């Protein structure tokens, strides 16, 4: 009986750490999806500005509501997407 109680206690003791690990994985997945969506939106804005005026300035993106910190974080990946799409279009 004592072994069964210790086994149950051990299972309950492990549960919070497993729960925390699951929550961490879910949170990471949500953040990654949100980042991908943000990069995709920024890439679309860059493409729209390029189509309209031929070049993109930081002020153009700031006018659309992008903040400088978000541009610093996401612009390199967004520009990679724009370049990839342009190269596929040219191929």
Account of the protein in words:
With 91 residues, the chain is mainly alpha-helical. It is built from three helices and no strands. The protein has helices spanning 2-53, 58-63, 68-90. The chain is elongated. The model has no long low-confidence stretch (mean pLDDT 86).
What layout of secondary structure does this protein have?
Elements: H1 2-53, H2 58-63, H3 68-90
Helix pairs in contact: 1-3
List keywords for this structure.
single chain; 91 residues; mainly alpha; 0% strand; elongated
Give a short overview.
The protein is mainly alpha-helical.
Question: How many β-strand stretches?
Answer: 0
Q: Rg from C-alpha positions?
A: 23 Å
Order of helices and strands: HHH
Inertia-based shape: elongated
Q: Beta-strand percentage?
A: under 5%
Compute the average pLDDT: 86
Helix- and strand-based class? Answer: mainly alpha
The low-confidence parts are: none
The largest β sheet comes out as: none
Q: Roughly how much helix do the residues carry, as a percent range?
A: over 70%
Euclidean distance between termini CA atoms: 72 Å
Q: So how many helices?
A: 3
């Amino acid at each position: 009986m004592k072994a069964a109680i210790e086994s149950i206690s051990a299972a309950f003791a492990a549960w919070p750490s497993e729960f925390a690990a699951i929550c961490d994985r879910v949170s990471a997945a949500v953040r990654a999806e949100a980042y991908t969506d943000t990069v995709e939106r920024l890439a679309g804005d860059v493409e729209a500005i390029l189509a309209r005026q031929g070049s993109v300035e930081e002020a153009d993106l700031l006018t659309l509501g992008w903040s400088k910190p978000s541009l610093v974080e996401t612009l390199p990946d967004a520009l990679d997407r724009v370049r990839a799409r342009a190269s596929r279009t040219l191929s």
